[in-house]
């Protein structure tokens, strides 16, 4: 049996996730749960612009499109870097930059 990795939310990611509509929140929880068990989300893509090993969970519901950016390559936890509602086809530079900063900060903590 695979151990379940804990989830650690970075910065405001948990508060940001909490403002998702209930259906998107439930789906995000389900997808993060799959990652915790060592699996992959149903709909994801690599986010190499944020950092190596960073992925984006893609969630769509009747209200809109939502994203959860995370990294699971470390043994100790699944780190959720950023959660947001996607308003355009292209992910905004602000969202990418925020996730990238949280990723860099995480790497600094892990290396200490």
TrEMBL record:
This is Phage-related protein. Pfam families: Gp49 (PF05973).
């Amino acid at each position: 049996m695979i151990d379940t990795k804990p989830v650690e939310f970075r910065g405001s990611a948990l508060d940001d996730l909490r403002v998702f509509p209930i259906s998107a929140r439930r789906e995000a929880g389900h997808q993060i749960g799959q990652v915790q068990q060592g699996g992959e989300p149903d709909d994801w893509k690599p986010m190499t612009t944020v950092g190596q090993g960073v992925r984006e969970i893609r969630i769509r519901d009747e209200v809109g499109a939502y994203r959860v950016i995370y990294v699971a390559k470390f043994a100790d936890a699944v780190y959720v870097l950023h959660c947001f509602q996607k308003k355009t086809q292209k992910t905004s530079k602000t969202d990418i930059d925020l996730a990238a900063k949280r990723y860099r900060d995480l790497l600094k903590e892990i290396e200490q």
